[in-house]
Amino acid sequence: MTIYEVLQKQIEKTYGMSGRKIGSVLIPAFLGDFKKVLDENDLGATVSEEYMTEDKKMHLVFKGQRRMAATGYEYVVISCVCNGAELLLEEQLLWNR
């Protein structure tokens, strides 16, 4: 599963039927902001950033790195914790090419 799919599944679990619409707004916002955070830090540095939905139903903590790859930078999410539970079994690319 991609990071997008993992987050969408968690949003649907939290918000029920309206989760798909909510996810289409929240996920690009969270991932886009986290990419900016990674860009602002040193290459290879492990960075974490917290996010909370306005209604406080979801508290997310992303941990990741910006790494050098053959075709430029690679943005990697090392950990994604939602409401205290780890959502990732392994590292995921922030954006799949």
Strand content is 25-35%
Please give the count of helices.
Answer: 2
Order of helices and strands: HHEEEEE
Note the overall shape: elongated
Range of helix content: 25-40%
Tags for this model:
alpha+beta, 5-stranded antiparallel beta sheet, 5 strands, 97 residues
Overall description:
It is a single chain. This protein is an alpha+beta fold and 97 residues long. The protein has one domain (3-93). 35% of the residues lie in helices and 33% in strands. It has 2 helices and 5 strands. Strands 1, 2, 3, 4 and 5 form a 5-stranded antiparallel sheet that branches. Strand 2 and strand 3 (72-82) form a beta hairpin. The protein is elongated and about 40 Å long. The mean pLDDT is 95.
Q: What are the SSEs and their pairings?
A:
Blueprint: H1 3-15, H2 19-39, E1 47-52, E2 59-69, E3 72-82, E4 85-86, E5 92-93
Antiparallel strand pairs: 1-2, 2-3, 3-4, 3-5
Brief overview, please?
With 97 residues, the protein is α+β, with helices and mostly antiparallel strands.
